[in-house]
Each structure stands twice: as structure tokens, then as C-alpha cells.
Amino acid sequence: METKIILPDREIPKKWYNIMADMPNLPAPPLHPATKQPVGPDDLSAIFPMALIEQEVTQERWIEIPEEVLKIYTLWRPSPMFRAHRLEEALGTPAKIYYKYEGVSPAGSHKPNTSVPQAYYNKQAGVKRIATETGAGQWGSAMALAGSLFGIDVTVYMVKVSYNQKPYRRIAMETWGATVHASPTDLTNAGRKILDEDPDNPGSLGIAISEAVEDAATHDDTNYALGSVLNHVLLHQTVIGLEAKKQMEMVGDYPDVVVGCCGGGSNLAGLSFPFLQDKINGKELRVIAVEPASCPTLTKGEFRYDFGDTAGLTPLLMMYTLGHDFVPPGIHAGGLRYHADAPLVCQLYHDGLMEAKAYPQTAVFKAAVLFAKSEGIIPAPESSHAIKGAIDEALRCKEEGKEETILFNLSGHGYLDLQAYADYLEGKLVDYEYPEEKIKEALSRLPQV
Ligand SMILES: *Cc1c(COP(=O)(O)O)cnc(C)c1O
Q1: CATH number for region 66-108+232-439
Q2: CB within 10 Å: which end of the chain, N or C, has fewer?
Q3: 119, 131 in Cβ contact below 8 A?
Q4: How does DSSP classify residue 29?
Q5: CA pair distance 149, 391, nearest whole angstrom
Q6: Which strands form 129-134's sheet, in the order they lie side by side?
Q7: Would you say the pTM of this structure is higher than 0.85?
Q8: Tens digits of per-residue pLDDT, 222-238?
């Protein structure tokens, strides 16, 4: 009865899996924000290298991972899979619970799986600097790390509430050589406009994206990089699920339920897409996306075209959205505060290939603490949504007397999020369900297509 299921370095996947080759309906095309016509490669080449634009649209099933990326992946991949024996015992469930642990990367989350190839392709294209945004700080950390590995400068626009709540994330980014600004800043038109209207604006991921995109679009040597949502990002993350499949095989098991937290959808996609390929081909399997009740994109949003950012600079994407100017409450799972989700995840959810659940943050932290006490690792607040989802499935199995296999993604550790735990332990966290009224209001401001 293994606890750790470990693959040797040589088993790192050599190709990423592209679900666009297999999904029943492709996502609707991105539209140009002004003309509302489908965007072409030229519209994107101001801020992305051509290799990534190609990955954004290709329907090839398998995409070769470059040798230099594989070499860097070996610093932490293959990541371990654990059987959560002690959590199962604590729950008294007949279910088998497994988790894939992405907190072993140098940045402490799954995000370097894509920041590394993104830095690589930008370097190949001769780009000198990358401008990007970060919410909780994990993406900024991952990009700063990748920039340092490939010798590219990195400028990070960090959502102001997180900048103030999480100084250690900023210090990590600066240690890897990045420059970090609290967003909204007075360095961009988008930032200045927001500050004029509200000098105390706490920032949001949408605003920070506007600033980073503007920075990249107005500097020739600078490109933009996104840590979630886009097809190429989800593609890169499939190394998680491809490894997980081999690891499950090693112990002669296969999941009945795959669970991931969903902020933009990249870690959920990374773990679940290789399994969804089997589901599309007839295998029985459930995939559950777990989101915060305070930012209930899939469970309460609408499936429509919306901007990826607040200022309306990005192409329009077909997504479940709460409205691009939605500013979610400052909950601790900062990485799950995005107003929409990846078009690929949204389309699969729309087509019934995924389910979604939303939980309030106190229930999530209760699950996180139970996990920490039984399995040891203190999980990231984001990942704890997946833990809560997995625990609920395990308790359902207990009720129904079923011995199902549950696999979830522990997308990162929480050792730089301890303030969130302090607040929870002191009873300071409140639950915040986003009022339907406000969602309707934000949705009324969606672009007409
Ligand atoms: C960023 C982040 C998330 C949310 O992003 P996805 O694209 O939905 O994966 C989840 N967990 C951790 C640890 C993160 O850093």
C-alpha cells in the first residue's frame, strides 16, 4: 500500500496533450475588442511570440515539449502523487483518495509548468522583458523564476490587496530578480484611470491584466504572459494529468472522480484533460471544478463573450463570466478571484463534461486544517477548495457505502499564505456570498456581440 507514488525523471511526459483534438465542440473564436471579428495571429503578435500563438489555435493532439524546457522541468518533475491514507482514516470513508502535489515546484505551485515554456518561447523570439500580472503572487513568482532561468527581465503588476497582505511573495519575486508594482499604478493609462475614479481601489486581477497588457503593447522589446485562461497555458499544464495517469497505472487504479480548484482553470485542466480524453472516448469518470462562493463563475455566471481584463483591451473570449468589471471581495484564496474561466474549461462545462461546485471560505479552511493535521502539508487556500471538494465526495462515498477512487490536485502549498491561516484560526474569516443583484448588474455591462 504505497503512500508516495513516484515516477523516475525519464518518465516526464515528452509531449503536451491538446484537448482541442478531441473535444466535441471547440470554443467559439476570440473576437477583436473593437471590430468584434475573430482575431488573427497578427492581432496577437504585439504581445505574444508566434510559437505560443500557434499553440493557442492548433488542433494537433500532441505538442512536443522542447528539450530545454524538459531539462528545467526535471528540477521538480515528475511531481509526486500521494495516497491520502491518513485523511481517509480521519474521514472513515471507504473511498480511496489520491492527490497530485504541485507544491514541489520552486515557486510552490503548478504555475512554473507554463511560465517556463512561456519564457523559453519568448527568449527564442528575442524578447527582452515580460510584463505580467499577479493576484495572490503565485503567477508572479512563477514568471519571475522562469525569467531568471532564461535571462529575461520580468515586471509584475501585483493586485494591491495581495501586495499588502503578502510581502513574502513580493520578496520571493524580487529575489528571482523581478520588479514588482502594486496595481493599480500610476505607470499606465489603465491604472491612472482607475486611481482617478477611486484612489483607494484595492485592485483586481482584471485591472492588473490591463496594466500589464498596456505595458507590453507599448514597448517593442516587451511581451505579455498570462498564467491561466488561455489555451496554451492549459496545454502546458497537461504534464500534471499525463504523469497522474502513469502514477495511477503504477498502483493499478483509475479515478472515478477528478477534482480541481478553479480560478482561471489551468490546474484543473492540467490534471483533468488527459482523463477527459478517456471520458470523451467512453470511459466513466466525473470531473469537478471547485470555486469560491464569493467568486462563483461557473455556478452563477453566464456563458457569453466578455473581455479578459477590466479595461477591455484583451480580445473577447467566450466564457462563463461574472462581468469584466466585477471586483470580488478580498477573500484569502486570491488566485481564485478572476471574473471568468478558461474558454476550454467553460466549453467542456457547458457540454456537460465537467461539473462545478462553490464553497464559502470558512468551510474551505476547515477542510484545509483537517488535511494539514492528517497529511501534514499546509495547503494553499486555492488548493484547499479542491480538498473540500474531494472530502465531500469521500463523505458521499461513506454514506453510499461506495469504494470509489477520488483524485484531486493539490495545486500548491500554503507556506507563504500563513496570514490566511492566522485569520481563520482567530475566527476572523467571514463568508461572503456574492449577491445575485451585483452579478446581474456587472453582467448588464457586458459587451454586445
Ligand atoms: C493560481 C493558482 C490557482 C488558480 O489558478 P488556475 O488557473 O485555476 O489553476 C490555484 N492554485 C494555486 C496554488 C495557484 O497558485
Answers
A1: 3.40.50.1100
A2: N
A3: no
A4: P
A5: 38
A6: 179-183, 153-159, 129-134, 222-224
A7: yes
A8: 999 999 999 999 999 99
End-to-end CA distance of the chain: 55
pLDDT band (50, 70, 90) for residue 195: very high
Which of 79, 145, 228, 262 has most ligand 1 atoms within 8 Å of its beta carbon, as the pocket-test mutant? 228
Q: What are the sequence ranges of the domains in the chain?
A: 66-108+232-439
| Cβ pair 316, 240 in contact under 8 A | no
CA distance linking residue 224 with residue 12, whole number of Å: 28
Distance 219 CA to ligand 1 centre (A): 28
pLDDT in tens, 52-93: 999 999 999 999 999 999 999 999 999 999 999 999 999 999
pLDDT given for residue 226 in this prediction: 93
| SS3 assignment, position 221 | coil
Q: How far apart are CA 412 and CA 105, in angstroms?
A: 9
129 membership: H or E segment, kind and range:
strand 129-134
Q: Which grid coordinates are listed for 320?
A: 462563463
DSSP letters spanning 312-347: S-SPEEEEEES-TT------S-GGG--SB--HHHHH
Cβ atoms of 203 and 184 within 8 Å: the answer is yes
pLDDT tens-digit series, residues 318-374: 999 999 888 777 667 767 878 899 999 999 999 999 999 999 999 999 999 999 999
Q: What is the pLDDT of residue 329?
A: 72
Which residues lie closer than 8 Å to 329 by C-beta, 6 or more apart?
294, 432, 434
Q: b vs e for 183-195, b when ≥16 Cβ sit within 10 Å of the residue's Cβ? A: bbbeebebbeebe
Q: Residue 139 in 3-state DSSP?
A: helix
CA torsion angle for 26, 30, 36, 37 (degrees, to 10)?
-70
Pocket of ligand 1 (CB under 6 A): 109, 111, 138-139, 228, 261-268, 335-336, 380, 382-383, 411-412
